[in-house]
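Hi there,

I know you've been waiting on this one. I reran it after we fixed the sequence typo, so this is the corrected version. Both the input and the resulting structure follow.
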Amino acid sequence: MIPMPMVDVVSAVGAQLRGSDTDASVRRITTDSRDVKQGDLFVAIRGERFDGHAFIEQAADAGVTGVLCDRVWFESTEFESVRRSVCCVVVADTIKGLGDLASYYRSTVMPVTTVVVGVTGTNGKTTTKSMLNHVLGESLPGRAAPKSFNNHIGVPLTLLSTEADDRYLIVEIGSSAPGEIDALSAMAKPHVGVITSIGEAHLEGFGGIEGVVREKTALLRHVSADGLVVVNVDRAEIRDTIAQTVHTRLITIGSHAHAKLSVADARGDIHRTTFELDGRFHVTLPMPGLHHATNAAATFAVARWFGVPPEKILKSLLTVPPLEGRTRVLDLGGVTIVDDSYNANPSSTDAAVETLSTTVSTRRVMVIGDMLELGDEAVAWHRQTLQGVLDSGIELIVAVGPLCATAAAGLDGNGDRVALCEDASAAFGLLQSRLLPGDTVWVKGSRAMRLDCLVDQLAGRFGCETAVA
């Protein structure tokens, strides 16, 4: 972060300022009381499980420059001694205050030489962000949102992390309800906008695939007029919308015939994916999943816009590091695990099944956890997905959760190939007794199903966890 005088912070959020050392400067913003230090502004967030205001005293003891707190906490007589020991920036709502501060920082403090790249989509946001950061980072100074910092807290923190010499900042923008991408994109004001994919996710909030399209394409309204727009047009639902989009530089990607930057002949196994890009470039990625081809195509398009030579981009893509929970391959002493446990929806699960079904292995095992937030058609989506796994020829399917259990009833060709488990713990109990040397296991499910715990348990049971390329 570029240091900001406390008076500018107060002005940005329209706050009251109370306490000591009001002339200090803020050198970093954090919402994590476990990682506070001198020069920080600690933002106390009231969340579903924790209230950051309970940790203000801990932050003050660590020597933070100040805290962003709400009036409810500040006006409580219980914390009078804490208030006297730290500079308090007092607002009605600290989440809104954090967003206001980020908007001010983006418009007033961040250098005009820093190019902001906004990445959204149903699938592939984090992978594309990481690919692009890996490729650009070998040529330019810059940074990307850590982990999945893609919501009303993560996006402001990403913007506020920018340093004076950063040539790029990659902001991941997610959504689970209408209007969120529009608001976060207005805050980020990207020079480059990327839509990685459109698919069935968060349908409860969006009301169908058309609602997903409206939400994701809201990003494009905030891209600079002279900037770059990159969009995956493999879904028919987005092509009509994109046809009405006017931008100086629009690059469509995908396997569809109308894509300007075409992806063709995608092939792969459990360790790598290859494809032909634009009929000119042979691309190799050190990860399984044919769907990663379009993520790499988006990365290529943006990196070229930054001026990175094609040969350098292709070389960098060869060494993209694996991401935990997103098709990271683990060699567990004879059993191979694909850790794809971070999240799931029908389209991303179908992509996983497609790759696993073509893998040469003693036995292929697909662990599918419930895919959440699919609305009234959730059981139908699960039944269609499970039927697709059966039809693919995968030898063993471990279905985890109540939606999978309901959907499994009446499947064609069920037999002994589908095992139902209540939760991740039950799935581990089943797999530790049934897995054999040479088996390949793909683990996929919504984050709330905690299948990452299953991956950790399998790693402990079958050997030391080793990522393989």
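Quick highlight: Residues 465-469 have pLDDT under 50 and may be disordered.

Best,
R. S.
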